[in-house]
Structure formats: structure tokens, C-alpha cells
Amino acid sequence: MENSITIHHIDAETVRCLHQEANLRGISVDALVLQLIQASIRKNNDIINQEIYHDLDDLAGTWSQEEAREFSEAIAEFERIDEKLWQ
Fold first, then answer.
1. Per the domain annotation, does 77 fall within a domain?
2. Is 26 left (phi over 0), alpha (psi -120 to 50) or beta?
């Protein structure tokens, strides 16, 4: 069984963009809106379903300011861009 949803109060610019994108894709505005909704739901589900790891939790926030400063100094060279490599 097919279901329908009506969306009210869509501003003119959004409607224009939907028509433009639908024309570019060669599909109806209804088909475009359905694709956009489905893609958004899939993306959100992917984010929600990402596994959360806790194996480094004990390390988070354990450095002193001095340790953090020393680490930043130790890796400072990695921040430098060798201009010769990018010519």
C-alpha cells in the first residue's frame, strides 16, 4: 500500500530548488523528495548504528598541561609544509 505525505508551508526558493534539481535528474519532484528523504534516513541510521569504542576512554583527559605542551612541541614539525613538495 502506498502512503502519501503532504508538506505545508514550503518557501518559494525551496520549491524552485526542488524543481531545478528534479529537472537536472530527469525525475519528478515527488521522486526527488522521496530520494532525499530516504538518503537522509540512511545517513542518519548509519551514524546511529556506528559502533562506539571505549578502549581509549581511560586515556582521554589524563594528560597534564605540561604533557600536552610537550606532545604539541614534539609533533610541531609534522605541521610544517615543505613548499618544495607542493610545486
1. no
2. left
